[in-house]
Amino acid sequence: MTTYDESGSIGKRYRRSDAIGTPWAITIDDETLNNGTVTVRDRDTMEQITLKVEEVIPYIEERIKFWFFFLSIFVIIFVKCYLMYCKRNKIKLYYYYR
User: Which of 19, 80, 91, 92 has the fewest C-beta atoms lying within 10 Å of its C-beta?
Assistant: First the structure.
């Protein structure tokens, strides 16, 4: 998702971006025009780094790989715990195939 926001201070813009769940906010400003850099802010750590424009896509791709890995591990653990819970409480599982 992409949003354009020029109202308020940059801090308030970052907070609005956090509120809607944007994992990384990319700020394009005068420095982008002058030296080809952008500021990338991580929602969870609030870390801000300056990257060259051509480095942004590899940077985001690397973080997305981490999140997909984390999510897949979470799903596996959840399913195993649910199966253990069902077995312990003698809950029958029904599988539907289409």
Answer: 92
Which residues make Cβ contacts (< 8 Å) with residue 42, sequence separation at least 6?
23, 24, 48
Is the pTM higher than 0.85?
A: no
20-24 long-range contacts, CB within 8 A, separation 24+: 23/63, 23/67, 24/60, 24/63
Can you give the CATH number for the domain in which 39 is found? 3.40.50.800
Average pLDDT over residues 27-31: 79
Residue 39 lies in domain: 10-88
CA dist 45 and 98 (Å) reads 43
Residue 2 lies in a domain: no
